Amino acid sequence: MTKDSGTKKSVVPSRLADRMEEGFHVVLGVFLFGIALAALVFSVIRVFTTSPFFPDGMIQAINDILFIIIILEILRTVIARYNDGVFQLQNFLIIGIIAAVRHILTVGASMTLGAEKPRESFDRAVIELGISSAIVVALVFAIFLSKASDNAVGAAKVKG
Are 91 and 73 in contact (CB under 8 A)? Predict the structure, then answer.
């Protein structure tokens, strides 16, 4: 019987797997940054070509900016994963909050600026706003719980 009877040998050497994962993260990061740049260029062009600028162009610009922020937060999450080796929960929660707020702004703007809509469309939009608002509150509460948990773990490490 060998000393390593409890450890399994991998088919792919771990060093090779680590290098492949690192390469994949670099490619993914560059790709996400390229998408963010392309979205920024597209958004700038669209701001100057949307007619009328107020309110349609402004609403679209805010929507585009929030979309770019979401892409950059995903990029930050990939970079953090590359550096730490761990996906960070708070980054995903922040992405969810931004996406929900983006949806709230889009639905709210369409309700405010849209032409007269049937009662059914209005009711659906109000329900969407309520659900999206509840999602934002739940995600903010999840961030609060995550930070409280991190603080409790940190305090326990200091004592122990």
Answer: yes
